[in-house]
């Protein structure tokens, strides 16, 4: 059952990060693409906005894809963790902890999830297991 739980966590969290990356890179799923996202990033002090939007989008898309597949899971977690640390430090941190005040509660939960999965392994239903990579001992 643990392996099915890990699969569920990886697929849901990974798919959501794929979506966030696609919003930033391609304007899909209600996103604003690099230019729109970059403009918002500049407005909150993240510069250069367009380049940072593309960087964050690539990290989210690649990290989400790898995480969902359970391939190179520690690398996937690192890519996602970088975006979450950035979100906490540059966007949500000044607002305190709670999401009701646009705080860092949700990015912190996602950070804990991806690091936790990376530490315990992606499970038997993963490409890491197929290729014998990064399995917990």
Automatic annotation (TrEMBL):
<keyword id="KW-0812">Transmembrane</keyword>
<protein>
    <submittedName>
        <fullName>Oxidoreductase</fullName>
    </submittedName>
</protein>
<keyword id="KW-1003">Cell membrane</keyword>
<dbReference type="Pfam" id="PF07681">
    <property type="entry name" value="DoxX"/>
</dbReference>
<feature type="transmembrane region" description="Helical">
    <location>
        <begin position="109"/>
        <end position="134"/>
    </location>
</feature>
<comment type="similarity">
    <text>Belongs to the DoxX family.</text>
</comment>
<dbReference type="InterPro" id="IPR032808">
    <property type="entry name" value="DoxX"/>
</dbReference>
<keyword id="KW-0472">Membrane</keyword>
<dbReference type="InterPro" id="IPR051907">
    <property type="entry name" value="DoxX-like_oxidoreductase"/>
</dbReference>
<keyword id="KW-1133">Transmembrane helix</keyword>
<feature type="transmembrane region" description="Helical">
    <location>
        <begin position="69"/>
        <end position="89"/>
    </location>
</feature>
């Amino acid at each position: 059952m643990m392996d099915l739980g890990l699969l569920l966590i990886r697929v849901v969290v990974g798919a959501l990060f794929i979506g966030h990356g696609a919003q930033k890179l391609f304007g899909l799923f209600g996103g604003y693409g690099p230019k729109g996202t970059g403009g918002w990033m500049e407005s909150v002090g993240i510069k250069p906005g367009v380049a940072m939007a593309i960087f964050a989008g690539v990290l989210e898309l690649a990290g989400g894809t790898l995480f969902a597949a359970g391939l190179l899971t520690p690398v996937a977690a690192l890519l996602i963790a970088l975006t979450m640390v950035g979100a906490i430090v540059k966007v949500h941190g000044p607002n305190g902890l709670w999401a009701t005040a646009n705080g860092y509660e949700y990015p912190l939960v996602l950070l804990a999830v991806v690091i936790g999965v990376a530490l315990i392994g992606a499970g038997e239903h993963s490409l890491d297991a197929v290729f014998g990579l990064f399995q917990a001992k």
